[in-house]
Input
Amino acid sequence: MKKIIRWVIYSLGIIFTVGLVYLGNLFFFKPFSLDHYLAKELILEMLDSPESLTYLGIVDRFNWITNHQSKISITGLEDLKEDLIDSKEIKSILLSYSDDSLSEQQQITKKIAVFDVTNFIEEAEAFPFHNYPLNQIGGMHLNAVEFMTDIHPIRNLKEAEAYIERLNLFDDSFKASLEILNAQRKEGIFPPKFVFDHVIRQLGEFLNYEENENPLKEVFLRKIKDLNLDPEASIDLISKLDDAIEDSVNPGFRLLFDFMNETKPEANRHHGVWSLPKGDEFYALRLRVYTTTNYSASEIHDIGLSEVERITERMQQIASELGFGNKVNVGQLMNGLNEDSKFLYPDIPERKETVVEDYNSIVEETWKELEAYFHKMPRSKVEVRAVPEYSEQNQAGGYYMSPALDGSRPGVFYANLYDIKQTPTYSMRALAFHEAIPGHHLQVALNLENENLTLYRRFGYGTSAFSEGWALYAERLALESGLADDPYDELGVLQSELFRAVRLVVDTGIHFKRWTREEAMAYMKRVTGMSDTEVSTEIERYIVWPGQACSYKVGMLKILELREKAKQEMGESFDIKDFHSAVLDQGQPPLFIVEDLVGKMLRK
Output
């Protein structure tokens, strides 16, 4: 009960803040403070995104006001133009705040907000269509289904009805997205052919599901069964659901399916964004956004090569100690281990359930051991689930979804169990460290639960340079803590780090040095020994998501650099808990802000 009261008060406080800020804007033409202004903009942005409100969870208590559970985003060309106009106004207002009038925390907030909005404006003006809304790993078609099946709650009759109302908007949403896709077509911007092949297959499979195999219906049936509704009410809901799929969902997917088939002959014959108009400039911006540094593509490529060499030498040392000989080819070694049955789960019907259970055991063990390294652990728990079958073939090896603010949904670490060779036992700890504890879940949940930060600092900005950098650092931390004492487990952790170092090489190789998909795949397989399935999935991910893969290693290196600096300057007074608090207690800031925060700790 206390928990509910706390969140109700917090939510009412948000509403009061928005009202107060609106009055300030109305009568004084300028917000009362930087924090109030950014809170207002953030809440307006959330109110404009029904999906964001559902992700938060807490706002569901006020659905009778917002009606967000019955809506989805419908974004067309005009919305893109309005977003650009709004962003320019936001930047102008941010710059109007004098640093002298701001507290130390507000000065940090201003730096973050200006950095973020400046990058957005540059991309919206110069590169509005340099992305691939329909792609094989994070396309709108996949996101829409996953949101409905995994995020939209069905805890009562009204939420079940809202689920159907959302499905009835799919057609309108995809029609609006087609405006953007057709504008992109006029600019001559298309993804490579393999993207068309994957997306057409995914859309075709969805359109051809047998009636009760459609995940939108399968999940709905399972959830309403738990509600113990009157039989007539259930029959009525199922009838309305079938109508929504037939009249809105399938026509929406058909629009996308037809567009991809029609434009497939225009597929980009190259793989890197260098081939797009002003492609090098676009890639430089993507690197700045994702790494929050000013490293050039060439510098990042060289850092990657250096890290590949260092990590490979350590793996060779371990291999020698295990009796594999001196200077073994690491790629061949890991390829061999990947084929070794003693590291693979048997391909039996219950394989996925067994792997998930084993992952959950690793997470539980790690949680207990790592408490000694942090002043506090998250209140929210984390669970492991298999990646849904409808997206597992082209999805990454693992990913994380954050918990709801009100505790109604835990954090989830999704493990891709499509191919048994994606889950050799020696690699499982590294992935669990990264996605759950002490990686994404610890960092994200602590941030969501940090009531000392302003709304903007908790929810308004995030960067993979920080979040993914932390998660990769978390793998190293878990290794240092003794959680991977088995030399094969250490090889798994090092293979994961090598994988991220290779990303620096292949991402810049594809998008800057003009490597082909096949050249990048050959390099990654030779160096890491990853399976063919993993390599193709990863390289194809980097092609449609340029720059993001560079954020992991760049972020990790910065955190390690700052930790070493703190150790050197503080000597025996260095406390790992204090260092982790300095890094984690300020939201998800750019790396240049993290450097300032650690510097402040050292000056105390």
About this structure: Residues 79 and 271 are 29 Å apart (CA to CA). Residues 1-30 have pLDDT under 50 and may be disordered. The radius of gyration is 24 Å.
